[in-house]
Amino acid sequence: MNILVVEDERNLADAIVHILENASCHAEACYDGRVGLRSALSGAFDAVVLDVMLPGMDGREVVHELRRRGSSVPVLMLTARTSTQDKVEGLDAGADDYMTKPFEAPELLARLRALTRRRGDVMLDEVTFADVRLDLATHDLSCGEASVHLSGKEFEVMSILMGSSSRVVSKQDLLSRVWGGSEASENSVEAYVSFLRKKLAHIGSKVQITTLRMLGYRLEVFSE
Ligand code: CA
After folding, report:
1. H/E/C letters for each residue in the chain?
2. Which pLDDT belongs to residue 181?
3. How many angstroms separate the alpha carbon of residue 79 from the centre of ligand 1?
4. Distance from the CA of 163 to the CA of which of 17, 103, 185, 219 falls in 20 to 30 A?
5. Ligand 1 mean position to 152 CA, how many Å?
6. Average pLDDT over residues 69-85
7. Ligand 1 centre and the CA of 36: distance in Å?
8. pLDDT(224) > 70
């Protein structure tokens, strides 16, 4: 599956490309509306992730122009605002779905899966890191033939770690992304990381969750 990402915030564009590559997709970023339109029209992409606010040409114009020229490539629009007006205009212009920033990797993959499923293309069903696979539908974590089910929170923590590849994710970041504004403390994060470590060991994976003091966690691959 080949996905075009049109987003001028380079950090976000690169993060999305990263998420997609971890989900075994090929992804390409461009940072300008006009360039994005040209690439999307090339027919080389199975779906387009398109920001609304872009230099050159805004996202609504890009999708309007794509449809006017007969392209039916699925478009997932990104909006920084939660305003209904923004979403309505995006959908009216011909986008298939929209997503509000910030978002989590599983949501992006789920929405793209829904869009491309409609076209009968390959689906984004799992994310991988080294020898482990995380099934986004069943929440099963597998290594070879071994597999274990993850609870809701374990799944969210694991998908953030896998989506970040080998980069460090802070405890605070996990706390706010997984537990939101709830009462949870850093002890909860530690507890879930410890559950995940046991499950990774249980399925015989070489992947370990390493603690970096004062910084947070990251996935590393250990060979015996
Ligand atoms: Ca933008």
Report:
1. CEEEEECCCHHHHHHHHHHHHHCCCEEEEECCHHHHHHHHHCCCCCEEEEECCCCCCCHHHHHHHHHHCCCCCCEEEEECCCCHHHHHHHHHHCCCEEEECCCCHHHHHHHHHHHHHHCCCCCCCEEEECCEEEECCCCEEEECCEEEECCHHHHHHHHHHHHCCCCCECHHHHHHHHHCCCCCCHHHHHHHHHHHHHHHHHCCCCEEEEEECCCEEEEEECCC
2. 64
3. 8
4. 185
5. 31
6. 82
7. 13
8. no
